[in-house]
Amino acid sequence: MGIFHKKETHESRSSSMSYAMHWKPENLRRISVISLFVIAAVVTLIGLNSQDKKNVALAKDGEMGSVETQHSLMNEVLDEHSILLNPEDKVSSPLAISVVRAVPVKLTVDGTTKTHFTTQKDVEGAIKELGVSLDPIDKITPALSSELKSNLEIRIVRVNKQLVQTQEAVPFTIVKTSDPDLLKGKTKVIQQGSKGLVTHNIEKVYEDGIFVSKQWLGKEVSKTAQPKVIAVGTKKPTAVLSASITRTGDKVDISGLTTKGGVSFKYKKVLKNVTLTAYSAEEDGIGTKTASGTRVKEGRTIAVDKSVVPMGWWVYIEGVGFRRAEDTGGAIKGNKMDVYYDSLKAANQFGRKKGRTVYVIGPTKPELN
Questions:
Q1: Which of 103, 99, 59 is nearest to 83 (CA)?
Q2: Which residue range(s) make up the domain with 329?
Q3: For 71-90, b where at least 16 C-beta lie within 10 A, e where not — what string?
Q4: Domain tally for the chain?
Q5: Is the alpha carbon torsion for 119, 120, 126, 129 positive or negative?
Q6: What distance in Å separates the CA atoms of residue 328 and residue 305, rounded to the nearest whole number?
Q7: CA separation (Å) from 220 to 198, 214, 242, 265, 278?
């Protein structure tokens, strides 16, 4: 009876060991490749939009949540949010991707309407994103804080304010004053009136170039009006019934009324055959100060014999006009008078004139009626 011997299976044992030896490196390579792929995918996902903030899902101590970050590395995210790890802690790195859908909005500004897509939350964010500049007085509809919705219509109205100045003439007033030296019924203009000028400040408002309103801001007086002053005569006229005539040599005293050069006046007396000479301050020894204390003035000053014509009285000289007795002279006696000229040349040209008639009027100069 034979004995059955179990057949040795050296070949099988060798094959099993060979397979085991072959499986380990191959699987290690597969595991390495898969790990590298997973790490690359995680890094790629984290790197998406790395310049923008993103939401990352974070599960800590059994609580699920999310954090916002701009970082792309896990340790940077953890450091940013002050999450400390112990050596025994376990960290996994799945990235939660947050997708925000852009919505269309219609923006009307500067005469054009366009549709834009935006992920902003409110009107202000959308306007900033589109790079539209705003002035503080511009009108925005709806308000900047309004929440964005799909197909929301946003309108910006450009507001412009302009300051306009207009001028208005102000008429002058007329002031009348009594003059006891002026005959009743006569008037004389003492001061000419002039109009004033007022500047009005007005603010005009335009919306998108169209005028909508205006507001008066105030006024400024550019020029003050000057009143016109008129003297009204209150003096009663004295009727001349007769003239008294007194002759003393060449002097004839006649009091009465006459008209010379368009001016009517009352005179005290008339001097006949008066000799006139001229003098000037440019002559040696002749000053500019008169005997009466006034300053010599061409067209006004004459030198007289004050016993014939009192100082300060006005006279009318035929061929010369109205003059005032303001000066005297050692050689001026009786019916002699010196007429003042600024220029010595003019005085010499005047020379000497004889046989003139002079009306002695009084301390008040007659005015044109």
A1: 59
A2: 245-362
A3: bbebeebbeeeeeeeeeeee
A4: 4
A5: negative
A6: 6
A7: 6, 18, 62, 48, 55
Domain boundary among 203, 234, 265: 234
- Distances 357 to 223, 315, 348 between C-alpha atoms, Å: 50, 10, 21
Q: How far apart are CA 351 and CA 60, in angstroms?
A: 128
Would you call 22 helix, strand, or coil by DSSP? helix
Domain boundary (157, 177, 199) is at 157
Is omega for the bond preceding 104 within 30 degrees of 0, making it cis? no
* DSSP assignment string, 121-161: SBHHHHHHHTT----TT-EEES-TTPBP-TTEEEEEE-EEE
DSSP labels, 200-263 = EEEEEEEETTEEEEEEEEEEEEEE--B-EEEEEEEEPPPP-----EEEETTEEEE-EEEEETTE
Q: Is the pTM of this model over 0.70?
A: no
Q: What is the per-residue pLDDT across 262-313, written as a single tens digit (0 to 9) for each? A: 888 999 999 999 999 999 988 887 888 888 889 999 999 999 999 999 999 9
The tens digit of pLDDT for each residue in 104-142 reads 999 999 989 999 999 999 999 989 998 899 999 999 999
Tokens standing for residue 163: 């300051």
Let me know whether 112 and 65 are in one domain: no
Is residue 60 domain-shared with residue 78, that is, in the same domain? Answer: yes
pLDDT in tens, 32-45: 444 444 444 444 44
88 inside domain = no
**Residues 209 and 159: beta-carbon distance below 8 Å:** no
